[in-house]
Amino acid sequence: MAKITRALRFMRKAEAALLSSIEVYNRPTFAYREETFAILALNAWELLLKAKLLEQHKNNAHCLYTLEPKNIKGGKQSKKLYIKRNRSGAALTHSLWKTISELEDKTAVRVDAAIKANLEALTAIRDNAVHFVIASPQLGKQVLEIGSAAVRNFVELSRQWFQHDLSGRHFFLMPIGFVDAPHSAMAIELSRDESRLISYLAQLSRNTAQGPASPFNVNLEVNLSFKKSKSATALALSITNDPSAPPVSITDEDFRKIYKWTYQQLMDQLKKTVFRLQS
Question: Between the CA atoms of 34, 39, 41 and 47, what dihedral angle is there, to the nearest 10 degrees?
Answer without folding.
Answer: 180
